[in-house]
Specification:
CATH class of the domain at 13-91 and 167-277 in chain A: Alpha Beta
Strand content of chain B: under 5%
Radius of gyration of chain B: 22 Å
Number of domains of chain B: 1
Largest sheet of chain A: 6 strands, mixed
Helix content of chain B: over 70%
Oligomer: heterodimer
Structural class of chain B: mainly alpha
CATH topology of chain B: MetI-like fold
Distance between the termini of chain A: 51 Å
Order of helices and strands of chain A: EEEHEEEHHHEHEHEEHH
Largest sheet of chain B: none
Number of helices of chain A: 8
Distance between the termini of chain B: 16 Å
CATH architecture of chain B: Orthogonal Bundle
CATH architecture of the domain at 13-91 and 167-277 in chain A: 3-Layer(aba) Sandwich
């Protein structure tokens, strides 16, 4: 079943992270903060992977290392066997917590500007942008401005923009964090349907256990800072996943295991505050 | 500046047609009231007609100086000074502002310096302009350009350094070149703030030129007001005051068009 949909099976490695560590200067000026330590992972083409862990564990940093936005202090990320040395607009598209839509441009123009930056052929930009809007159900809002859209619709537009770039890899940095719960659920279902139809390799940074289990083929659990990989959970369930999956024993079991793994790390991350309270 | 422009938007953008009519009515009534009080205090001679002529007399003089073309040579001088000083303020303010905003360090070091210079009364430098450049148009041009420089420069720094960093990250991740980043992201994002600085700067430039003309000059519409005052011709003086006010109002309305175009945000 999973093999038929092309997910779950690690046919071919697309992304490789080799012994990545990252250190940055502490914000208060004294010393250094180790954000990531010795990360080694491989992600297959078409895989949907979540990165989950306590705040400050470096999961967003890892995303940015893979996206070429941060050069790691040590180690390297590889996409399709080639070392990442900077942004890869033809291969990697981003979705951020905020939609990052240009407020002065229509939704359609927003997508076309990104296509222009990506050096997509001028003649096809309009059509590609409109198709992407259709894919996320926003074709009626092509000429709307961002401030006329709800938070959920803006994130949909950001998704359309990312899809229009036709990259193999989609990096999602807490894309649902600013949305209300109902909108998140619908968005997650849509995303799962999209995963079944398009062969995208997705890395999702999230804080939500339910979201991670519902969407992922594999979940990487991070330790508190310095971020290391503590465990990897597999979710053997074909896409598209229905809301019914959320109430299945399998879902609950995975969610509970995930919580057990995370609980210690979250306690460690906030440990100092708790000692202060005792 | 952004708070002021937000308030300005609230003042103009959200009015219904009925509210707009009502607001126009209030403005007209205030103007009418002013004219009525003016007329009343002059016909009853509560205020001596020598210090304040009747509105009707001022209107007659106004029509004469405008109709006969008597005011044009002075207006031409003032507009010529503005036509040189305005672009100088615009280019210098925009360029310095942009260069300072290029690095976070530059913005942090130079923005406070420029702000604090802006806070001192620039008018005290006018005598230096006159000493160095004479009482002709050159000193007014220098003075006007200096006045206009600061708001344009400060708003340019603010506009560029407050562009949403996420928009810049997105542009980088999608492969934007430096040129694309500037023209497609930075400039449109900073434009509303820069434009309100340009509007304020050009208006201050114009007012500073007229102010300079009233202090030390041989021509220009500001000078003509003082010239008639010194000649005790209050009728003509008031006609010129009305003329200057009218020109300033028209100038302000023209500069307001700069901001109207931003519309949605």
């Amino acid at each position: 079943m999973t093999n038929e949909t092309g997910r779950g099976a690690m046919a071919e490695t697309l992304i490789k992270v080799e012994d990545v560590s990252h250190v940055f200067p502490a914000p208060d000026g004294g010393g250094e903060v180790i954000a990531l330590e010795g990360i080694d992972i491989e992600i297959g083409r078409g895989e949907m992977v979540s990165l989950i862990g306590p705040s400050g564990c470096g999961k967003s940093t890892l995303l940015n290392v893979i996206g070429g936005m941060i050069a790691p202090s040590q180690g390297a990320a590889l996409i399709g066997g080639a070392r990442v040395r900077g942004p890869r607009p033809k291969e990697v598209a981003y979705i951020f917590q905020e939609s990052a839509l240009l407020p002065w441009a229509t939704i359609l123009d927003n997508i076309k500007v990104s296509l222009e930056f990506q050096k997509a052929p001028r003649a096809t930009r309009d059509q590609v942008a409109r198709e992407a809007l259709k894919a996320v159900g926003l074709d009626a809002f092509a000429t709307s401005y961002p401030h006329q859209l709800s938070g959920g619709m803006k994130q949909r537009a950001a998704l359309a923009r990312a899809l229009s770039l036709r990259t193999d890899v989609l990096l999602m940095d807490e894309p649902f964090a600013a949305l209300d719960e109902q909108t998140r659920m619908i968005f997650s279902e849509d995303l799962s349907r999209l995963l079944a139809n398009e062969r995208k390799t997705i890395l999702l940074v999230t804080h939500s256990l339910a979201e991670a289990v519902f969407l992922s083929d594999r979940i990487f659990v991070f330790t508190s800072r310095p971020g290391r990989i503590k465990a990897v959970l597999e979710v053997d369930e074909p896409h598209p996943r229905s809301p019914a999956f959320m109430t299945s024993p399998k879902f609950n079991d995975l969610r509970n295991r995930l919580y057990e793994l995370l609980r210690d790390e979250v306690l460690a991350a906030i440990g100092k505050d708790r000692q202060g309270l005792a | 500046m952004s708070a002021a422009s937000a308030a300005g938007q609230a003042l103009t953008a959200r009015l219904t047609p009925a509210q707009r009519r009502a607001s126009a009515l209030v403005k007209l009534s205030a103007l009418a009231l002013l004219l009525i009080v003016w007329h009343f205090v002059t016909v009853t001679e509560i205020v001596s007609p020598f210090f304040l002529p009747k509105p009707a007399d001022v209107l007659r003089n106004f029509i004469r100086i405008v109709g006969s073309g008597q005011a044009w040579p002075d207006l031409k001088v003032t507009l010529f000074e503005f036509a040189i000083a305005g672009p100088i303020a615009l280019v210098a303010g925009g360029l310095v502002g942009f260069l300072v905003s290029l690095t976070r360090y530059g913005a942090r070091v130079f923005e406070p310096i420029i702000s604090s210079v802006y806070a001192i009364p620039i008018i005290i430098f006018y005598p230096i302009s006159v000493m160095a450049l004479g009482i002709g148009p050159e000193s007014k041009i220098a003075h006007g350009a200096l006045f206009g420089f600061f708001p344009i420069c400060l708003n340019t720094i603010q506009g560029f350094s407050r562009v949403d960093p996420l928009l810049i990250r997105l542009a980088h991740s999608t492969g934007a070149s430096q040129r694309q980043l500037f023209w497609r992201i930075m400039l449109p994002a900073a434009a509303p703030t820069i434009l309100s600085g340009v509007r304020l700067g050009l208006m201050l430039c114009f007012l500073a030129i007229i102010g300079g003309e009233t202090i030390a000059s041989i021509e220009g519409i500001g000078h003509r007001v003082v010239w008639y005052a010194e000649g005790m011709q209050t009728g003509n003086m008031f006609a010129y005051i009305v003329f200057v006010v009218l020109v300033a109002v028209i100038m302000n309305a023209a500069l307001s068009l700069l901001e109207f175009r931003k519309g949605r945000s």
